[in-house]
Amino acid sequence: MKKGLLTLLFIVSITTTLQAQEIYTEIRRTAQAKVNDPTADLLIRKFSMFKLDALNYLAIRMKEEFPDSSADLLDKEALSLNVFITNYTRSLVESRNMPANHQKKIIKAYMDASYSNPLFNDKDTELVLTYFNDASSLTRFSLDTDWRRAVLAAKAAMKSINK
User: Fold this and answer.
1) 67 CB-side CA count, 13 A
2) Which residues of the chain have pLDDT under 70?
3) Which residues of 49-78 are buried (b: 16+ CB within 10 A; e: fewer)?
4) pTM for this predicted structure
5) 24 vs 73, 99, 104, CA distance in Å?
């Protein structure tokens, strides 16, 4: 598990150095590669599957809702999604020796940050809450998330948890 999470953090560090127009494509390509790699750690594959689904949802909905928006908006959301997932995994790793109640607070904080910050206000709750409602999922987040706002909300929630 530790090895997989370190790999995930390494991927994030690579993507932050890319040019803006390449961010969405690179994060999506990396997630797809991890999903398709049968030798990859199962946790990495699950996190990558969520990323891939969230990125695909984001691209489709942006074309529908914001057809005139620039690729820059998609790139910013993709990068923020990547940061959100990285911060989430880092928080879980750092809390692995804490009581289960503390870990549950972290998970809930990230779930709330995702759910409370929709980007499209999509009425298809069955689709957007697929991961959120799956109690066995490691990534219980809404697909309809403004990832830039969610990163800020999760960061604020983590400050209050770690006081």
Assistant:
1) 1
2) 1-21
3) bbbbbbbebbeebbeeeeeeeeeeebbbbb
4) 0.86
5) 10, 36, 30
